[in-house]
Amino acid sequence: MLDDRKAAILKAVIEKYIETAQPVGSAAVAKRSDIDVSSATVRHELGALESEGYLDQPHTSAGRIPTDKGYRFFVDELGEPAPPPATAKQVRAFFNAAHGELERMLLDTSKLLSNLTNLAGVVVGGSGDARAAADIRSIQLVGLGESTALMVAVMSNGAVVRHTLDSPHAGDTTRLGAATVHLGGALDGVRTTNLPDSISATGDAITDALVTSGLAALCDSLTSSAGVAVNADVHVGGTARLAEAFDAVETVRSVLATLEQQLVVVSLVREVLDRDSRIAIGGELGLETLSQCSVVVAPYEIEGEIAGTIGVLGPTRMDYSQALAAVTVVSKRLGGVLGEGGGA
Amino acid sequence: MLDDRKAAILKAVIEKYIETAQPVGSAAVAKRSDIDVSSATVRHELGALESEGYLDQPHTSAGRIPTDKGYRFFVDELGEPAPPPATAKQVRAFFNAAHGELERMLLDTSKLLSNLTNLAGVVVGGSGDARAAADIRSIQLVGLGESTALMVAVMSNGAVVRHTLDSPHAGDTTRLGAATVHLGGALDGVRTTNLPDSISATGDAITDALVTSGLAALCDSLTSSAGVAVNADVHVGGTARLAEAFDAVETVRSVLATLEQQLVVVSLVREVLDRDSRIAIGGELGLETLSQCSVVVAPYEIEGEIAGTIGVLGPTRMDYSQALAAVTVVSKRLGGVLGEGGGA
DNA sequence: GCTGGCACTCGGTAGGTTGGAGTGCCAACC
DNA sequence: GGTTGGCACTCCAACCTACCGAGTGCCAGC
Fold first, then answer.
1. Terminal C-alpha separation, chain A
2. Residues in a beta bridge with B123
């Protein structure tokens, strides 16, 4: 598609632009050691690259800046990421010190990603496309008021899901206990992907009603976390760094506002993975408000199964190489740590 | 301290400044219907107010802008807030539609506050100064791996706290079950403020060890949420609106970065309430990065006990009256809804 | 003590100039 | 034919300047 020289020049322009955030001129490209033609020739090629849509020119007497298409070519040429030692070290230190809650860990991981890349970090627990692959370890109904109870379930990966349920019998401690026992018997060890539609009767109508409500609550909280993703486990860290990444205040505002909508973040991440890709650039995200952003994502696996997704979000002129390296190494280590702690 | 006329003029300046964000001149003040002296007289008073520290002048030929001290006087004069009907309506609609998870509800409440005031909304669950006043409804140990278990406790207010614990016996399902039962017997219905230091022995050393770890985990998760506040239930919504509130990008960045530190947010809110106040202005916050911000807070009560704090954060030139009204009405309704659902 | 008048200050804006970075094109060269 | 240095051209950004107007402080008069 592009001959070697064009590709080299495009790469040079993009690297320079990522570094300086300024339009890149032919002289700056020609100066590079891996380009040994004159600036006039570079100019000629730049013109060609522009008419092919890889570059853009803000105005006549300015240098070129990459288009989404230019970035796309650039990242497709990117080889396997090699995380710089400093990054690797920081990641190792983080996961050695890590302990405790799943949720807190995911939140901290989003901050780690942000620190490593100087972008916003995103962690989506409970998977992107498949449902969270986990077994139920415990399920329980706890009465809260006369007509309100709470369903609390613990998964083998350490996740705790909960959902309130309204029932006229929520004050009936005995029956709640019976329902809890019955639910536990029927669901303990069951994969969340394999939930039964109903549970055998106990002989007591009220208990059965509670059991049914409990199962419904569980299904609700699982589908709403993997399906519509209302309750999905979304953590976004380091949003402050976005304030510096864009100079237009309005852009900052709309990007932040978009990131606050967990649903949007989840589908964003999922769509990229659905496309079997790791990187989405600008318009590829399909969101007007994020047209100046790119994301780099990676799924993390616990014992071979996709358990969630991490990623970073920043301006299209981010350091893709660094971002890809960080996301990759963190996803590996995160899966490892979660697997050893809670997966066995 | 200030005679009536000075107070009226100060009030006029502040209201105008809140509205326009521009330095206010003597003519603009004199034009107001409640000021019936000439601009020359106003100028004289403005000079006096400035030398007393209530106002500041960016440069010689500019109008005046309020200082922190000026805002302080202004808010102290503020009467009881009367929420505009639109606000009241929106709040009612929100709480009528509200349902489900405590955490989700708190997060949504922070967004509600943000929408009402056009500032960032803050909700701190689990109280500000006293520990969360709630009874334990259920406590459970769930094995996750060979050496990891999860303590999950449900409170009467619907909060779920959890904490991992490492123990060589975490794989011993039988003993975990025994420990769960024993813990439940000892702690069910106990107030979190009244936790025992230790729990009577069961006769089995391993079970006892698990019981002790479980209690420790519970104490940990409670103190770390009410004490050091590492895990405190902090929700900040509408941060995007801050991007517009300040014109300096650097300010936006540092404010956002500060808000990401949950610990800081918790202590911020707590300190204001400790001072028995509702509003803290600029320097009163004691944080360099927030010197251009103010917060307006209110505790919310569930059945007469302080259960948490809500508030808004924005630039010092926020609409204090509106903010106070919104925070007040939301805190009342929030406490009411939580009480009826989960407090009885 | 209040007021209108007045000289003064100073920041922001509009217009005009300049410098430089960068381009496109072309003729010459290999 | 591809590559190169040269050159005229464009256009932004920075700078300067003048100026306008908002706002002040002060003062004399009511």
1. 49
2. B235, B310
Predicted confidence (pLDDT) per residue in A292-328, tens digit:
999 999 999 887 878 889 999 999 999 999 999 999 9
User: Which residue, among B340, B334, B325, has the nearest Cα to B80 in the 3D structure?
Assistant: B325
CA–C1' B47–C8 (A): 17
Name the nucleotide nearest B44; use CA and C1': D25
Q: Is B150 touching A (CB cutoff 8 A)?
A: yes
The answer to whether B172 and B194 are in contact (CB under 8 A) is: no
pTM summary value: 0.85
DSSP string, B20-58: H-S-B-HHHHHHSTT--S-HHHHHHHHHHHHHTTSEE-S
A241 at B interface, C-beta within 8 A: yes
B343 pLDDT more than 60 = no
Kindly state whether B142 is in contact with chain A, defined as any CB-CB distance less than 8 angstroms.
yes
Question: For residue B313, is pLDDT > 50?
Answer: yes
Strand C proximal to B224 Cβ, under 7 A: no
CB of B37 under 7 A from strand C?
yes
Predicted confidence (pLDDT) per residue in B38-95, tens digit: 999 999 999 999 999 999 999 998 999 999 999 999 999 998 888 889 999 999 999 9
**Structure token digits, residue A213:** 């409500």
Kindly list the distances between the CA atom of residue B177 and the CA atoms of A332, B3, B180, in Å, as whole numbers in the listed order.
34, 72, 5
A172: closest CA among A198, A197, A194, A205? A205
Query: Of A157-171, B40-54, B121-135, which gets the smallest average pLDDT?
Result: B121-135
Residue B306 has pLDDT above 50, yes or no: yes
Q: How many residues are there in chain B?
A: 344
Cα distance between residue B170 and residue B185, in whole Å: 20
Exposed e or buried b per residue across A63-72, where buried means at least 16 C-beta atoms within 10 angstroms of its C-beta: bbbbbbbbbb
Closest Cβ–Cβ partner in B101, B160, B256 for A239: B256
Question: B154–A156: do the CB atoms touch at under 8 Å?
Answer: no
Taking the C-alpha atoms of residue A247 and residue B249, their distance in angstroms, rounded to an integer, is: 8
- In the structure, what pLDDT confidence band is assigned to residue A132 with cuts at 50, 70 and 90? low
Cβ pairs A/B, distance under 8 A:
123
What's the rounded Cα separation, in Å, for the pair A301 and A330?
Answer: 11
Beta bridge partners of B310: B123, B298
Q: Which pairs from A12-18 meet CB under 8 Å and 24+ separation?
A: A13/A46, A13/A49, A13/A55, A13/A64, A13/A66, A13/A70, A14/A66, A14/A70, A14/A71, A14/A74, A17/A65, A17/A66, A17/A317, A18/A317, A18/A318, A18/A319, A18/A320
| Confidence (pLDDT) at B344 | 39
- Identify the helix (H) or strand (E) that includes residue B158: none
**Is residue B135 within 8 Å of residue B191, measured between CB atoms?**
yes
Question: Would an 8 Å CB–CB cutoff place B219 in contact with chain A?
Answer: no
Smallest Cα distance from A66 to chain B, Å: 25
> CA B30, CA B43: separation in Å to the nearest integer?
9
